[in-house]
Every structure is written in structure tokens, then in C-alpha cells.
Amino acid sequence: MLQALEDSVKYIKHKIGDFTPEVGIVLGTGLGALVNEIDIPHSIMYSSIPNFPISTLEFHSGKLIFGTLNGKKVVAMQGRLHYYEGYSMQQITFPIRVMKLLGITHLFVSNAAGSLNPEFRKGELMIIHDHINLQPESPLRGLNHTNLGPRFPDMSQPYNHDLIEKGLHIAREAHITCHKGVYVAVTGPNLETKAEYKYLRVIGGDAVGMSTVPEIIVANHMGLPVFAISVLTDEGFPADLKPVSVEEIIETAAKAEPKMTLILSKLISGL
């Protein structure tokens, strides 16, 4: 892994010159429009970066975007990677390690998720303050490289408390409905059954999705403060469960995206 990381970072630095990003951003399903707010001097396709996994989803662009957002130098993943695409957890989180080695000091993550909490409705936002990991493998499984992080990283506060409170404050000021809740990570790509939705709610979940947690684990392993936010694109309420398509999820995410973009932009500008 260390050699692969070194090769990727060397290639990217050759492309971006003396640009050093301060903030890393991961844009989830249907949530790529934040790049329109970035003044972009450099853009690199995943497929051209040595050892970099390639997003296999038709609605994910697969680009690393380098630029300035509200005065901060950022690198944004326009198109994230998922375990259900067939990649290992180490491959999914490889870009997080690359961004850290490029110089980022904070990580911001977005995703589209299904609501499990009847008080959290479709089209609203949820800032993640904790998670439950039901995915079958940890990205830290295997040989630990101590120069990347400790063998047993603490996960008692995986999401930065100050950023959470600031994000909630920004939402209130802008009259945006934004909750704070627990995200449950599952493998996917299938959506959940009625019994599974009920189970996920019983164990403490407020929203469910197929991403984010591997990246959060690796960010904590490398000492990166994290902020994560979900756009709630569907509702997993067993008593009134309706079929949902990926197209509907993307459409709902796109409608709610400006609210998420506002919160992320203001948070990043205030760092």
C-alpha cells in the first residue's frame, strides 16, 4: 500500500504543481454540483492516476477536482467508491489516504441515505454524529502501517463535535431543516426489506446507506477531523413502505443539494 500511495501522490503532485489542498471533500450519489462553486485550476480523471480505483457507476463522474472554495484550497472527489462495486475496503478508502498525504487537514463527506426515523422526512438533511457499521470488513484489516495511523484507533468521537454544532447553527440561520442522527452502513446494492428497516431502526439507526463509514474509519485512523452529512432521499418506514428507484433517489438528492451545498460551503469557509 505504501508504494502505491507514494506513486499516486507523486503523479498528482506532478499534475497540480505547488497547489496544496487544505480540505478534502467526498461527494455522494446525486451530490456532485458542489464542484460548480469551486474555482478549478486542476481536474484529474481517476482512470489516469496510478493505482486509483475507478468508479463504475454511470452517475458518478470519477474525477479529482482541485480548486478554491470560499478562500480555501480543496480537493473534491466527484464520484465516490462503494464496497458493492466489488472493490476491497482498502481500495474504497485509498483516495482518503491520498488526500491526507497531499496535505488536507479536514475531511467533509456527503451521501444520499434512506430515513429510518419517522421524524426525519424525505428531502431533509441529517448531520451524522455517530454510526453503526454493518458492513462485513474493516478498511484497517491486515498489516497496519504505523506511519499512517495506530493499530487500534479510537472511535468514541468519529465525527468532529465543533463542526457538527457549527453545521447545525448554519442550518438554523438559513431556515434549513437539518437533523442530527446515527447513520447505519450496509453493504448494498439492494435496498432493505421491511423487516430490515425495522431492525435498523430498533438498533438505533436514524438513516441507512451504503457508503461513508469506511472513509470515516480511515480518516480517524489518520487523525483527520471529519464532518459528514446525509441528504435523506427516501423513507424506510415499514408501516408505509413504498418501492423506490435509483432515479427517484438521484432526483430527490438533486433537489435538496443546494441546502447541503450552503452548509458545506459556509463550514469550509469558517475553518
Describe this structure in words.
Keywords: Glycosyltransferase, Transferase. One of its GO terms (molecular function) is purine-nucleoside phosphorylase activity. Residues 23-268 form the Nucleoside phosphorylase domain. Homotrimer. This protein is α/β, with parallel strands linked by helices and 271 residues long. It has one domain (2-269): Rossmann fold, CATH 3.40.50. Helix content is 31%, strand content 24%. The protein has a 5-stranded mixed barrel. The longest helix has 24 residues, at 246-269. The radius of gyration is 18 Å and the shape is globular. The two termini are 31 Å apart.
Structural class by helix and strand composition: alpha/beta
DSSP summary, beta strand count: 9
Strand content: 15-25%
Main sheet: strands, sense, barrel? 5 strands, mixed, barrel
Order of helices and strands: HEEEEHEEHEHEHEH
Residue ranges: pLDDT <50 for 5 or more in a row? none
| Shape-level CATH architecture | 3-Layer(aba) Sandwich
Helical residue percent band: 25-40%
Looking at the structure, the CATH topology is Rossmann fold
Radius of gyration: 18 Å
- Output mean pLDDT: 94
Short description:
This protein is α/β, with parallel strands linked by helices. The chain has helices at residues 2-16, 89-102, 161-173, 194-202, 213-221, 246-269, and strands at residues 23-27, 39-45, 63-69, 72-78, 106-115, 125-133, 178-185, 207-209, 226-235.
